[in-house]
Amino acid sequence: MIMKNLGLQSLASRPTYSFRRRETSCVPSRCAGHEPTLYSFDEPTAYLDPAGRRRVLSTMKLLHHQGIGILHITHDVNDIADADRLLVMDKGRIILDGPPEHIM
Which of 6, 19, 45, 98 could form a disulfide with 102 if both were Cys (CB 3.0 to 4.6 A apart)? Predict the structure, then answer.
């Protein structure tokens, strides 16, 4: 289901070592047969067109509603609208930590 939501069905039958860099950042570990309780997404919407951005963000939201933790690393404040908690870092240190309504 996740691969379909992200439009990545074509990668399902390929070994992960054959993926290009952008492909590896798009494939969640659940698709590789794991059942994680937390996903880490590092700039998952970078370089995507608007439709791709919406697919990735809606899939992350769906995973969150299924009880899976989401660690979303981004520089784009537009991507954090649904966050429960924000950590703002500067030079490797956390400078702000709290709910979005307190930080924004």
Answer: 98
pLDDT digits (tens, 9 = 90+) for 17-69: 666 655 555 555 545 555 678 888 888 888 888 988 888 898 889 889 989 89
Task: Look up residue 33 and give its DSSP letter.
Answer: T
**On the CB side of 81, how many CA atoms lie within 13 Å of its CA?**
6
Task: Indicate the domain borders of the chain.
Answer: 2-75
Distance CA 4, CA 8 (A): 6
CA–CA separation, 2 and 28 (whole Å): 8
Secondary structure, 3-state, 68-81: CEEEEECCCHHHHC
- Beta partners for residue 72, in sequence order: 41
